[in-house]
């Protein structure tokens, strides 16, 4: 596997911004990464991301690198792995997330809302969301970002009160 393949694996396993990806690179707990990737410098990673973008494997959405459909297909053929996907629309809603992230951490709060939408959650209020059970790696990332302490998780017993 090349450094580019490793980046695609990270982006397919978990959606996250470039800063988050670069922070997690050295301690990434997903599929095995080559030693060359773990030792890659920031400029090298930027060049590799630019090349992946030219090939249409990734795109940049605001401050966030996202693997494209073409990138997912490439990885699936090359590595034969099951990739992280958006939650299906008909997935049962089983979890309520409530968070109160301080204004000083507004970017993290906005990031969390985008990620919850991608995971199939429905906004009940700006900081109250209903959706499926979260991937373990997502909960770990909340801890890595230091925002899990502002979040509460509740199991939803019924989909409707009325």
Order of helices and strands: HEHHHEEHEHEEHE
Strand line-up across the major sheet: 5-6-4-7
Span between termini: 53 Å
Going by CATH, the architecture of the largest domain would be Orthogonal Bundle
Mean pLDDT across every amino acid position: 76
Largest sheet: 4 strands, antiparallel
Poorly predicted parts? 81-86
Just give the CATH class of the largest domain. Answer: Mainly Alpha
User: Per CATH, what is the topology of the largest domain?
Assistant: Arc Repressor Mutant, subunit A
CATH superfamily of the largest domain: Winged helix-like DNA-binding domain superfamily/Winged helix DNA-binding domain
Strand content: 15-25%
DSSP strand count? 7
Task: Tell me the domain tally.
Answer: 2
Radius of gyration: 17 Å
Oligomer: single chain
Q: Helicity range of the residues?
A: 40-55%
Number of helices: 7
Which outline best applies?
A: elongated
Query: What structural class do you assign from the helix and strand content?
Result: alpha+beta
Keywords:
17% strand, Arc Repressor Mutant, subunit A, 43% helix, three-stranded antiparallel beta sheet, 2 domains, 162 residues, 7 helices, elongated, four-stranded antiparallel beta sheet, alpha+beta, Alpha-Beta Plaits
What does this protein look like?
By secondary structure, this protein is α+β, with helices and mostly antiparallel strands. The protein is elongated and about 45 Å long. The chain folds into two domains: 3-79, Orthogonal Bundle (Arc Repressor Mutant, subunit A); 95-155, Alpha-Beta Plaits (2-Layer Sandwich). The chain has a four-stranded antiparallel beta sheet, with no helix packed on it. A three-stranded antiparallel beta sheet has the order 1-3-2. It contains seven helices and seven strands.
